[in-house]
């Protein structure tokens, strides 16, 4: 009698036949992929200024779901029949992040806080719960590649919608988001308008700032390219080609150095994993987009070039560099643990426009080290998964995840990225995905298939 080398925990729908469900998981209509897709739609399709009445900016519907995800993950871990078998390195980094946040929160109150600082610290702790919830649910909750790709397809479609809104704003100088009002929600806080810069006008789409919009588009672009190349059906690939073009075209509409820097870093990571034909196609496409941009907005190219050649005289750059002495004077007072998480309130102090400075002032060197660890571990897990992966599709996906972490590290120097909730929610989403691909490519079947303890027993 021949023994099968296939463990039941390895069985997935794709390994049997189309439409056949043979997973080791019980069938559920609402799983992590569905909830994450809903969160992405609420996060990216609804303008960021709309919140649940009588709440802070964390009252955005998507962030409420993100906070509930953290409770969901804890409840699952508390049940021995549902918790996952096998290691997950990113859980340990999240634990360090949570321990730092609690310690920093306590340090802030021991220092003594104003009412504004105390409220901001409470808000920061709620965001920590949302950050951890999204990251852990993506890392542990998605059972296989198919569900992961489903969530990222939703992400790309939502990014395409954001890009279309931004392009409409750019072309017609009209705030399209006023037509996206949702009954039961109310606008609160800063509402981004149109800012003229050179020959162009800066737009923010459904986000809160032009720079945030450009960073989100740069993070979405590699995944749009991924599905344009690897979607199973020709019509699907064609749709994603259109989405990729729309997303790429939206980056110049922000007239932001950050967007071009992020797009350049994305290409720096992705080009080595492309073959010669793909590089040629991308070069031709980029040339076509550039020609179209020159035709539609002839002066915009000169404006973009001037952003870099005249950076030393740009007030948006010089105002940042002038804050270095101020940041240093505050940092040396509390270099190790900082002033307390969330206690650098911009209206009370000054706008930093630098996430790494904000992290150093509020969390000290320990806080900076924890944030660096989150990025580096995410990159390491994606690199390990890329080396393990045998299919070009999986390798390309892992490279796209690496590019998002490089982008996040870089844009942290250009604006206070974690203060803008759309970007700050997509960041843990990408980090969690690196943990998921690490698990899917693990040599042990019980790890890569995320077997529940009740089944393994």
Automatic annotation (TrEMBL):
Protein name: O-antigen ligase-related domain-containing protein
UniProt keyword annotations, A-Z: Membrane, Transmembrane, Transmembrane helix
Pfam families: Wzy_C
Predominant subcellular localization, coarse grouping: membrane
Transmembrane parts of this sequence: 32-52, 58-78, 90-112, 124-142, 154-173, 208-228, 240-273, 356-385, 397-415, 421-440
Species name: Micromonospora sonchi
Subcellular locations according to the entry: Membrane
Xref: PANTHER family: TEICHURONIC ACID BIOSYNTHESIS PROTEIN TUAE
Entry membrane topology: Multi-pass membrane protein
Domain of life assignment: Bacteria
InterPro entries: O-antigen_ligase-rel_domated, WaaL-like
